[in-house]
Write a structure and sequence with these properties.
135 residues; mainly alpha; two-stranded antiparallel ribbon; 2 strands; globular
């Protein structure tokens, strides 16, 4: 993606982004740390591309990553009862406390520094066998 190219309104939904998001995200990052994303149904989201801004956004109580909040808002906007599919509804990354807390507690033993260090050789072997991307 060239530095002078402009992004389409629905840039995150394009085949170019799906196939290789890195040039598009680099373009977005150069323009600024936060970018609004529009969806064809009128929904909006924000893409945060830099660490400091992402850290601040994750700590901001006005923002939510809880998929149930998003589906409730979409339901209100469309006038239809929408619910997230089970694979999204119960995913740890899509929840906020208090729903997030018991799931996190249940798996936290697997992510201690000692456990992560013990996995290092296996992870490195797998990573070394992966093809280089992009080719």
């Amino acid at each position: 993606m060239s530095g002078t190219q402009t992004l389409s309104k629905y840039w995150m939904l394009t085949n170019e982004f799906t196939q290789n998001p890195y040039p598009v995200l680099e373009h977005v990052r150069r323009e600024g740390p936060v970018r609004e994303l529009s969806f064809p149904d009128g929904g909006r989201a924000w893409v945060v591309t830099r660490y400091e801004e992402a850290k601040a956004a994750l700590a901001d109580p006005r923002l939510s990553r809880d998929v149930h909040v998003h589906y409730r808002l979409m339901s209100e906007r469309t006038g239809r009862a929408l619910t997230p599919p089970p694979e999204e509804a119960n995913h740890l990354a899509n929840l906020e406390p208090p729903r997030h807390t018991p799931l996190r507690r249940a798996i936290s033993f697997a992510f201690t520094p000692r456990r992560a260090e013990a996995l290092r050789p296996k992870v490195e072997r797998i990573a070394d066998d992966l093809p280089i991307w992009p080719p």
